[in-house]
Specification:
Elements (H helix, E strand, L loop, with lengths): L1 H10 L3 H7 L4 H21 L8 H7 L4 E20 L2 E17 L4 E4 L3 E2 L4 H8 L7 E4 L12 E4 L12 H24 L14 H21 L1
Parallel strand pairs: 1-5, 5-6
Antiparallel strand pairs: 1-2, 2-3, 2-4
Helix pairs in contact: 1-3, 2-3, 3-7, 6-7
C-alpha cells in the first residue's frame, strides 16, 4: 500500500477519485490515508530522515562552523466557501500557511517549524520558535529576515537597496555571492514540491494533517538524498 500514500502525496487528487482508482469507496480511502501517513512517518523516522521539529533537537544535530540556510515555504488552503447563491459559487476564502525550513548546503532539510498562518512575518516566526544556536554557524538569510540576529551566528544577508539610491559595486558582488549560496535552500524546497500536496491548494481542514504532510515531503526528500 506504499504506492497508495505516495501517489496521493504526488498527485494531490480528490480523495474520492483516489479511492476509486484503488477500488475503494471514499470512507475507505480516507481511512487508509490517515493510517498510512502515520506508518510512513514512523518508517522515515527509523531511517533518520525526519527533520527536527524543535530547536533543541536541531542544535544537537548541528556541528561547529556549519553553513545553514533558512527560508519559509508557503502553500494555499481553502478555508471555507463564503457565499452560495442560485447554485453559483460567488467567492471562496483562501489562506496561506507556511513553515520555516532550515537546510544545509547539500539540500538536506534539517528543521521544519510548526505550521503558521501565511500572514506571520518571517522574523516573528523565528522569535516565537526561539530559533537560537548553541554552536557557531554561518547563517544564510534573505531580506525577509531583517532584524533576526541570533547569537553564535555569522550572518550573511543581502543589504537592502537604499531608497532612491543604488548599491555600490562591493555590495552588488556580496549580494550575488549570497544569492548563489542561498539558492541551495530553494533547491531543497523544490525537492519537496515534487509532491503536489505541498505545492497546490490543500483541501483538508485538519491542522495536523497539513503539518504532517509538509514534514513527510521534507523527510522523503532527505530519504532520496541519503539513499540515491
Amino acid at each position: 500500500m506504499l504506492i497508495f500514500i505516495l501517489s496521493y502525496m504526488k498527485n494531490n487528487p480528490l480523495q474520492q477519485a483516489h479511492a476509486t482508482a484503488f477500488n475503494m469507496n471514499q470512507p475507505q480511502g480516507t481511512l487508509w490515508i490517515h493510517l498510512l501517513k502515520k506508518i510512513l512517518n514512523n518508517t522515515l523516522e527509523k531511517a533518520n530522515c525526519i527533520p527536527c521539529r524543535t530547536v533543541d533537537a536541531l542544535n544537537k544535530f548541528l556541528v561547529e562552523g556549519q553553513d545553514i540556510l533558512i527560508n519559509e515555504q508557503n502553500f494555499l488552503y481553502f478555508d471555507q466557501v463564503i457565499l452560495m447563491f442560485k447554485r453559483f459559487l460567488l467567492w471562496q476564502k483562501k489562506h496561506t500557511i507556511k513553515n520555516l525550513i532550515v537546510s544545509d548546503l547539500n539540500n538536506n532539510i534539517l528543521y521544519v517549524s510548526q505550521t503558521w498562518e501565511g500572514k506571520m512575518h518571517d522574523k516573528m516566526m523565528c522569535e516565537i520558535e526561539k530559533l537560537k544556536f548553541s554552536k557557531k554557524v554561518r547563517l544564510w538569510l534573505d531580506s525577509g529576515f531583517q532584524g533576526f540576529n541570533p547569537e553564535n551566528a555569522e550572518i550573511n544577508r543581502p543589504k537592502k537597496k537604499p531608497k532612491g539610491k543604488e548599491l555600490i559595486e562591493i555590495e552588488k558582488k556580496s549580494f550575488q555571492q549570497i544569492s548563489r549560496t542561498r539558492v541551495k535552500v530553494e533547491d531543497a524546497i523544490g525537492n519537496c514540491k515534487v509532491f503536489r500536496i505541498v505545492k497546490e491548494e490543500i483541501r483538508s481542514f485538519i491542522d495536523d494533517f497539513r503539518d504532517l504532510f509538509m514534514v513527510l515531503a521534507c523527510a522523503l526528500s532527505n530519504f532520496k538524498l541519503k539513499y540515491q
